[in-house]
Amino acid sequence: MKVRFLNLSVTDPDERKAFHQALDNILDHGLLVIGPEVERFEESISRYTSSPYAIGVGSGSDAIFLALKALGINVGDEVITSCMSFVATANAISLTGAKPVFADLGEDLNIDPDSIRSLITPKTKAIIPVHYGGLMADMAEIQKIADEFKLQVVEDASQAFGATAGGRYAGTLGDIGAISLNPMKILAGMGEAGIVLTANETLRLKLETLRYNGLEDRKLCRWPSTNARLDTLQAAFLQYRLEQVNDLIQKRREIASYYRQSFGHLVSCPKDIEERKHVYYTFNILTEHRDALLAHLTQNDIESKVYHPIISHEPAYKQAECRTTNANKLFAKKLAIPCHEKLSDNEVQFVVDTILQFFENHE
Ligand SMILES: Cc1ncc(COP(=O)(O)O)c(C=O)c1O
Q1: Do 153 and 64 form a contact (C-beta atoms < 8 A)?
Q2: Residue 5 falls within a domain, yes or no?
Q3: Ligand 1 atom closest to Cα of 131?
Q4: What confidence score (pLDDT) does residue 269 get?
Q5: Atom 14 of ligand 1: nearest residue by CA position
Q6: Ligand 1 pocket: which of 57, 61, 111 to mutate (most atoms <8 Å of CB)?
Q7: Which of 24, 154, 196, 243 has the highest CB neighbour count under 10 A?
Q8: What is the pTM of this model?
Q9: Residue 167, in any domain of the structure
Q10: Within 6 Å (CB) of ligand 1, which residues are found?
Q11: Count of domains in the chain?
Q12: Which of 213, 238, 263 is the last residue of a domain?
């Protein structure tokens, strides 16, 4: 049996039918750019997350970049973010001309608020917490720091669509929320896509302008920007998937709970915190035996991954200001194992048995 880390093929016949129908509708109406499907999807996201505004964009990378542009982040500014994320978070900061500053992690793999405090300088303008692996960062503490130092907050909720903190959805607690909807994500397009959330009407108008080359009413260029509009076909696919997303999250939560119950005494598993509901974009275990376990899983045809790297270790960010002491320790123990809605019960059981078998010799 081969257990895949992710399976992006579309196997559900109802889903395939809905996608073909969506394509047919678009071929019929011919409104290919910002067609009615985009507005409908934005409204649906707005309802789902209770965010007053949702603006469809081309990708999660675009979402973060446009969020920072909308907040006026510029050359000479500093933006503090988590040292562990997909590199797109840092790249978006760099592309504004600002300097990314990398904060250390807490035990939950999220940005450590104390580390943020220690990195604030007069140039600091914003914080980007990344809700890592599907669990929200400590937004209450981060907002406290932001209020104290008058900083803006952009949540990178790319890995946490549907996660909540105190009942509020990821992406709706900061000034702006940026979410990737690429094919690997919890709410997944069939190609590149993203969404930006905000409760501020001025920011919403600015974001809508920025996503199309800074053009107001598609005429007057107000700010230099790029073309980062959500594709109409992706909006239609995503609309269908949004209707299924709660079931998908539930399935992941059930697998996570079974994993915790089966081998939570042998490795550190993501915690099930009532106040911060996880969506298990990745199920990251921590173990001193990481490399040997990875080899054992690979031998048994179970795909698992050591990612994401610490960004300040990337060649592009070697010179960056950073605190990574705890992150280095956590990274050495971290392994993401398969935890997705397409896993069969047999596959889940095989993952459990294989891990238990490994620990018979590695207590
Ligand atoms: C935390 C995080 N931020 C940003 C991105 C970038 O999103 P996209 O691939 O849609 O540009 C990703 C996606 O991989 C991500 O995981």
Answers
A1: no
A2: no
A3: 1
A4: 98
A5: 86
A6: 61
A7: 196
A8: 0.98
A9: yes
A10: 59-61, 85-86, 88-89, 130, 156, 158-159, 180, 182, 192, 194
A11: 2
A12: 238
Statement to judge: residues 217 and 256 lie in one domain: no
Among 156, 178, 171, smallest CA distance to 48 is for: 171
Question: What angle, rounded to 10 degrees, do the helices at 36-49 and 232-263 form?
Answer: 30
Domain end marker among 200, 218, 238: 238
Distance 359 CA to ligand 1 centre (A): 34
In angstroms, what is the span from residue 266 Cα to ligand 1's centroid? 31
- Strands 168-169, 164-165: pairing kind: antiparallel
Residue 252 CA to ligand 1 center (angstroms) comes to 20
Asked whether residue 95 carries a pLDDT value surpassing 90, the answer given is yes
CATH number for the domain that contains residue 234? 3.40.640.10
**Residue range 251-267, pLDDT digits in tens:** 999 999 999 999 999 99
Identify whether residues 233 and 277 lie together within a single domain. no
Q: What is the pLDDT of residue 337?
A: 98
Print the domain residue range for 251: 245-359
Pocket of ligand 1, candidates 84, 180, 181: which has the most ligand atoms within 8 Å of its Cβ, to mutate?
A: 180
The region of weakest confidence among 50-59, 135-144, 178-187, 217-226 is 217-226
Distance CA 54, CA 176 (A): 10
d(CA 159, CA 163): 9
CA distance 362 to 50: 47
Instruction: State whether 296 and 345 are in the same domain.
Output: yes
pLDDT at 272: 86
Residue written as token pair 């079931």: 247
Residue 8 lies in a domain: no
Q: Does the pLDDT of residue 134 top 90, yes or no? A: yes
Q: Measured between alpha carbons, how far is 214 from 194 in angstroms, rounded to an integer?
A: 18
* Whether residue 171 is found in the same domain as residue 218: yes
**255/219 same-domain check:** no
Pair (214, 254) in one structural domain: no
Q: What is the pLDDT of residue 252?
A: 98
227-250, pLDDT tens digit by residue?
A: 999 999 999 999 999 999 999 999
15 pLDDT higher than 80: yes
Specify the range with the lowest mean pLDDT, choosing from 136-145, 169-178, 305-314.
305-314
Question: Which pLDDT tens digit goes with each residue over 158-167?
Answer: 999 999 999 9
CATH number at residue 324: 3.90.1150.10
Q: Does a structural domain hold residue 1?
A: no
